[in-house]
Amino acid sequence: MGELAAEIPTRDNIYKILAADHKVKAAGVDCDGILRGKIMDKDKFLSSLEHGFGFSSVLFGWDMHDVLFKTEQSSTSVLEGFGDFTAIPDVSSFRRIPWEDNIPFFLLRFESHDSPVPADGRTILRSFCQELGKHGFKSMAGVELEFMNFQTPTENGYTNNGDPRDLTSFLDKNAPSSLRYLTSGIFTYSSIRPLATKTYFHQIFDKCVQFRTNLESWHTEAAPGVFEAALKMSEIDEMADRVTLFKFLVKSLGIEHHVTPCFMAKPVYGQCGNSGHIHISLTDSTGKNVFARKTPDKNAKWKDIEELSDIGRYFLAGLLTAIPDLMPLLAPTINSYKRLIENYWAPTTLGWGLEDRNSAIRLIAPPVSKPGATRFEIRIPGADLHPHYALAALLGAGWRGVQKKLEIPVPPTLLRKDKPESLSNTLDVAVARFKAPGSIAREIFSDEFVDLFSSSREHEIRLYKEAVTDWEFKRYIETV
Q1: What is the percentage of the chain residues whose pLDDT exceeds 90?
Q2: Which residue numbers delimit the GS catalytic domain (predicted)?
């Protein structure tokens, strides 16, 4: 099973590895975290390894439904006809797609006039990793994704003989509430419930091994038809790639099994949302965890950080200081904020604590865990996160804390006597803080990136404000 992932290409052996192939699939990640790509003739692809190939800059000029943004940006412009970026294949990202006849697959980076495209999340995160490397550190990360699964309907109802991709036609004529969950009821960690769709369930785990998006654990979660995938820890830039590719894998297998996987943060009223918790740590060049303290600090300000190193404390301070200004990168959609409500296992305020799952940041450290596993779990993101942007935001925020040697600004949540700071509760509030002149976002990221991403979110806000929802129509059609 592992043979497909065993080929590790370099520029020297890539020709040999692809010798028997005649086509290649290549894709980049847009500003919504969606893969955009195409199939290429192998010879055309190989000729692009040195200098890249053309890829329309509209990639960062439209939304997830290909609607152009109304605000002009310098890096991609309708006035300039959305000229080409240069797409650079990332040889190290090579995989074969086992459900597409093992076609070779590569991820892309994007350049414009020999400079990185400011919105390219893969390049942003890599540059942060390179900066970390200059100081002798690496960042490790893990991501846990929950997603709800629906039976895919056809236009005429539910059948295994219809078009498994006809969800849009169905929703044109039926309310979303007409969708059927893949499995009914709430049964977390069930050993039985996955058997109802065991081929789909087990194929996801097995194909992840072949596609190098390996899972550490895989189980049912606390809502109908919900699975949770914990991706196996890796270096942070690789983890961001794996999250994107995991979604691609699950959606691809869903088509074959007449299942619609849903990574919305809050798909259904009254049910828990789909989380996208992020675990993050730093190591030295040898792989040793640098958040772990050699000996407990009995003079620590709070017992929760007795086993947390100075670097770990600075990193935590950086997270707590910056997260309020970075919320659109952690919760990027209108729907994201419908998950961040009380009593649904999602944080509404900014806080932290040792093994505290009710706080936005859970510190995992001795004496509960082993020193080498010391890390932070950021519980704000949902499954709708853009992994490259979200991981870059957290790494940039924590590293800023290390560089500035920031002090942890608030005690653990359970020890606080005042009310913790509330997180932004809507996307428009979050974007206003994110793009403000004094925002920490502008300290961590380039102004060009902040402006472009803000424009993309303002586009989303504008479309939402123009929409008339089923709730409004039902409530007001007769009474007002």
Answers
A1: 81
A2: 121-480
- For 89, the token pair is 């294949």
pLDDT digits (tens, 9 = 90+) for 166-184: 677 777 777 777 889 998 8
DSSP assignment, residue 168? H
DSSP class per residue in 337-395: HHHS-TTSSS--B--EEET-TTSSEEEE-TTTS-GGG-EEEE---BTT--HHHHHHHHH
Q: Which of 270, 284, 248 is nearest to 105 (CA)?
A: 248
What is the spatial distance between Cα 332 and Cα 431, in angstroms, rounded to a whole number?
A: 9
Q: Is the pTM of this model over 0.70?
A: yes
The answer to the question of residue 358 being in a domain is yes
Q: How many structural domains does the chain have?
A: 2
Q: What is the pLDDT of residue 3?
A: 43
Do 315 and 364 lie in one domain? The reply is: yes
Q: Is residue 342 part of a domain?
A: yes
Same domain flag for 256 and 367: yes
What is the C-alpha separation between 40 and 11, in angstroms, rounded? 18
Q: Is the domain of 110 the same as that of 140?
A: no
Range(s) of the domain holding residue 342:
130-477
Q: Which residues contact 399 (CB under 8 A, 6 or more apart)?
A: 128, 131, 132, 315, 318
CA-based nearest residue to 378, from 422, 346, 335: 346
Residues 291-317, mean pLDDT to the nearest whole number: 97
pLDDT of 282 higher than 50? yes
**Could you give the CA distance from residue 201 to residue 186 in angstroms, rounded to a whole number?**
17
Cα of 91 vs its chain's centroid, Å: 22
- Residues with Cβ within 8 Å of residue 194, at least 6 apart in sequence: 201, 202, 220, 227
Which CATH number goes with the domain that contains 329? 3.30.590.10
pLDDT above 60 for 6? no
